[in-house]
Amino acid sequence: MYRERLIEILNDEASQTDGNPFYLFLSLPHVHWPVMADLNYTDLYPDVDDVYNRRKYLGMVSQMDFIVHTMVELLKENGQYENTIIVGSSDNGGYTSLYVVVQSLPLFLFSS
To answer: DSSP letters of 42-66?
Structure first.
C-alpha cells in the first residue's frame, strides 16, 4: 500500500512540477509494533530462527528497504534525484529492559 501510493505521488509530482521543489513526508510503520510482515519478505529468511519474531523483524526491515529503494529509483528516473535531500529518522527505540529506557534518536541525512 505505501509503495503503490509513493509511486503515484512521485510520478504525479514529476509530471506537474516542471522541476520545482516539492516536499514529501513518508512515514513508514516498519519496524514498529505490532510485529507484522508480508510473507514475501519473511520468506527471504528461511534459515533464521523465529525466536522473538526475528524473521518478522527482518521481513519488516526488508520491506521498508524496498520502499525506500523504490523512492530513490523513481527520483532517478524522473530526473529529481540530483536535487533531493533525504532525511531518515526513527523513534526512541523503546525499552531495553523492564526498568531502563534508551533515549536514542537515530537520524540520517543524505544529499546527492
So the answer is: HTT-TTS--GGGHHHHHHHHHHHHH
pTM value? Answer: 0.74
Q: Domains of the chain: which residue ranges?
A: 2-13+24-84
CB atoms inside a 10 Å sphere around CB 46: 7
Residue 82 C-beta-side C-alpha neighbours within 13 Å: 4
pLDDT tens-digit profile of 88-105? 777 655 555 544 444 455
* Nine cell digits for residue 26: 513518508
Among 62, 55, 54, 64, residue whose Cα is nearest residue 89: 64
| Type and span of the H or E element at 3 | helix 2-16
Nearest to 53 by CA among 27, 67, 34, 30: 34
Contacts of 25 (CB under 8 A, 6+ apart): none
